[in-house]
Amino acid sequence: MDSSSTPQVITCKAAVAWGAGEALVMEEVEVSPPQSLEIRIKVVSTSLCRSDLSAWQSHAIFPRIFGHEASGIVESVGLGVTEFKEGDHVLTVFIGECMSCRPCKSGKSNVCQVLGLERKGLMHSDQTTRFSVKGKPVYHYCAVSSFSEYTVVHSGCAVKVSPHVPLEKICLLSCGVAAGLGAAWNVADVSKGSTVVIFGLGTVGLSVAQGAKLRGASRIIGVDNNPKKCENAKAFGVTEVVDPNSYIEPIAQVIKSITDGGADFSFECVGDTDMITTALQSCCDGWGLTVTLGVPKVKPEMSAHYGLFLTGRTLKGTLFGGWKPKSDLPSLVEKYMNKEIHIDDYITHNLPFDEINKAFNLMKEGKCLRCVIHMPR
Q1: Residue range 106-132: average pLDDT?
Q2: Long-range contact set of residues 251-254: C-beta below 8 Å, sequence gap at least 24
Q3: For this chain's UniProt record, which GO biological process terms are given (predicted)?
Q4: In the predicted model, what is the mean pLDDT of the chain?
Q5: Is residue 248, in this structure, part of any structural domain at all?
Q6: Which domain holds residue 93?
Q7: Same-domain status, 170 and 230
Q8: How distant, in Å, are the alpha carbons of 86, 98, 135, 184 from that of 82?
């Protein structure tokens, strides 16, 4: 494409969700040109995250194109974009970094006021959609919508990477793996010799385990009732696994019993507000810290006895592990390339784009960690 030409509408294949829990349908979609401060990306690889599954199963906005863990190549840029050019390799991110709002400049938060969580299925810049099928608008998801051969994102929701980085691997850093590592490092600041308990041994929980192991935690206890997940947990740093179904007493009491009063750090990676209370109860008095990473599908409100906090426990929430995407993701990519962190082992399945419904079924059945979906070249 001539860099001086004006980008035109692209027609391509996308997996469109028309209703809650309905199989995705391969549709011919029209993808509008990028507007001011936007870029259009040819998606190379994208992985399925549990939040995609949860939103698909709920009564969310439809029709919609899901997907947010992705890597690709810039196809065209909109007016005002100076950071990217055609041909650049990029990671997409579901929260952006405008670099100029109060949180972005504070150094205290990664929740950008301008490019924070997208909740309405529309572009940040003008509250419209860039997708349509036969003239009918199709909505975005998490500011990315990577289950499409081409997508449009705000330039603040993409991170440039070296062309030597394997795009089919690092797409996992767009969400799950980065979120888990950041929760252990940035949010909890796990200390050497500490005891850690992790509720939920999916990709996020096992990434917390990797982060805790690299920080020198002495015990990393994984809690999950899926035997398939428990089998491989030790390969990611988990030192022991607890199945709640094997005990009569509440699992929080079990954890307190085997840790002499509770863990130093507990992480809720399930997306269950009752589990947040259990995680709080499982960490110790005085300095016990609980970090919640999961996004609940139902019952968003939580309750906990005030005494848990009166005795010194702390509860913290985190989005994307506290990472500022543009500022921090390049260093994570570098750590991967230097073999300081592991990503490949989280990929349990690789599927072509036209088998995307199989990926959803594998995750529904608890048979995968991350399934990477490869787009046609």
Answers
A1: 90
A2: 251/223, 251/278, 251/282, 252/278, 252/281, 252/282
A3: formaldehyde catabolic process
A4: 93
A5: yes
A6: 10-174+343-374
A7: no
A8: 11, 13, 31, 34
**What are the DSSP E strand ranges found in the chain?**
10-16, 25-31, 38-47, 69-77, 89-92, 131-133, 136-138, 150-154, 158-161, 195-199, 219-223, 240-242, 265-268, 289-292, 314-317, 347-352, 370-374
Q: Are residues 155 and 183 in the same domain?
A: no
pLDDT of residue 3: 46
Q: Which of 342, 368, 334 is closest to 177 using CA atoms?
A: 342
Average pLDDT over residues 6-12: 93
Q: Which of 39, 125, 124 is nearest to 85 (CA)?
A: 39
Strand 219-223, strand 240-242: pairing: parallel
Residues ≥6 apart with Cβ < 8 Å to 191:
215, 216, 217, 264
Say which range, 181-190, 256-265, 275-284, 301-310, has the weakest mean pLDDT: 301-310
The verdict on 189 and 218 lying in the same domain is yes
Look at phi and psi of residue 322 and say left if phi exceeds 0, alpha if psi is from -120 to 50, else beta: left
- Tens-place pLDDT, residues 135-165: 999 999 999 999 999 999 999 999 999 999 9
How many domains in the chain?
2
Read off the tokens for 344: 């490949």
- Looking at the structure, tell me whether residues 170 and 309 fall in a common domain: no
Same domain for 87 and 69: yes
